[in-house]
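To fix ideas, we quote verbatim one protein's residues and fold tokens.
>
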Amino acid sequence: MKLLLHVCCAPCSIQCIQALADENIRTTLFWYNPNIHPYTEYRYRLDALRKFSEDKNLSLIIEDEYGLQSFIKAVSVVEAEEGKRCTICYRQRLEKTALFAAENGYDAISTSLLISPYQNHELIWQTGEEVATEHGIEFLYRDFRPLFRVSQNGAREAGYYMQKYCGCIFSEEERYCVNCCCKRKNEK
């Protein structure tokens, strides 16, 4: 199987790649994450992923598109609440992955997003199935969540950049506004 693995960052990728290798599936990594904000965060994650792929001698394809404006525009047509914006985010990233895979002879796609206990796992799975079918390829589903802590610890030990939020501007706001006035205003 020729697999294109959408990767969101080095920490989430480590154990996904290892688990796939344990199944004798060699992956090509695919970076496409236009939702990540701010630009410095985008660069930190991409630079760490480059270092990781070099350290492990992995193939990495980079669609280097910082797309804050297109992401915000897409989200603005729906409410920015978590479920709706995540639907757009997953679809944008997995659609681009599936398109690239179909155009370049890959049999299947998957994503490192499936390792995070903080992501909407079922929505990722559903979106992956939809976009893969639309492009005539497979979506390789794996529940990598049990490997999350091991992957994070491996990233820390290797000295890779560790992010503190999923990446979008809305999750960054939520990260800082746990007890702030905007959070209290929304609860009234």
Remarks:
- The beta strands are 3-7, 27-31, 60-62, 108-111, 138-139.
- The radius of gyration is 16 Å.
